[in-house]
Amino acid sequence: MEVNSTEQRRSAGWFIVTAAGLRVAFGVIMAVDAYLKWRPAFAAHYVGYLQNAANGQPPWLVPWFHFWLHIVARNSAFFVGATRLLETAVCIGLLLGLARRITYVVGALLSVLTTPTHGAWVTNSRRCRWRMHGRSLTGFSLWSRRKCREAI
Questions:
Q1: How far, in Å, CA of 10 to CA of 42, rounded?
Q2: DSSP secondary structure string, the chain?
Q3: Cα 42 vs. chain centroid, distance in angstroms?
Q4: What does the alpha-carbon distance between residue 138 and residue 53 come to, in Å, rounded to a whole number?
Q5: 36 with 144: CB under 8 angstroms?
Q6: How far is Cα 50 from Cα 4, in angstroms, rounded to an integer?
Q7: Which residues of the chain fall below pLDDT 50?
Q8: What is the pLDDT of residue 56?
Q9: Which residues in 119-144 are b (16+ Cβ under 10 Å) and which e?
Q10: Domain ranges of the chain
Q11: Full-prediction pTM beyond 0.70?
């Protein structure tokens, strides 16, 4: 009986360590993202990012982008500040393991709200537009890269 409980404790220990490792890994990714959000270029081009993202979207997403463009264009400073603070808070929460439930919920909501914008990231190439058809850790889909190379 004691051998089983020792094995159960070991497997539970590995699960806890793995979960913490994943949490910290996502925290590092969010730290890089938060760092980029605090750069002056992000604030200067925030509305432009949304406008670029709105171009070439499927018809069912167009109202979503127009809605956000209408709201954000009125007070972009508020949305820039809110984005910066939320991403930084999620980053700190993930890295330090603070308020995990709230951190996970806020991070998920932030991702749901910003993913369509990331998905329409457009390169400067004349022939190639990268569309994200599923999110990977870096925000780019390998499928999109392959299709982009085939288009050139």
A1: 46
A2: -HHHHHHHHHHHHHHHHHHHHHHHHHHHHHHHHHHHHTSHHHHHHHHHHHHHHHTT--TTTHHHHHHHHHHHHH-HHHHHHHHHHHHHHHHHHHHHT-SHHHHHHHHHHHHHHHHHHHHT---S-SS-----SS--TTS--HHHHHHHHHH-
A3: 15
A4: 18
A5: no
A6: 55
A7: 1, 119-152
A8: 76
A9: bbbeeeeeebbbbbeeeeeeebbeeb
A10: 2-120, 121-152
A11: no
Distance between CA 34 and CA 94 in Å, rounded?
Answer: 12
CB atoms within 10 A of CB 22: 11
Q: How far is CA 60 from the centre of its chain?
A: 21
> Rounded to whole angstroms, how far apart are CA atoms 92 and 86?
10
Query: Residues in the chain, how many?
Result: 152
Nearest-angstrom CA–CA distance, 13 and 5: 12
Per the CB < 8 A criterion, the answer to whether 91 and 27 are in contact is yes
Closest to 111 in 3D by CA, of 96, 128, 94: 94
What is the distance between the alpha carbons of residues 86 and 106, in angstroms, rounded to a whole number? 8
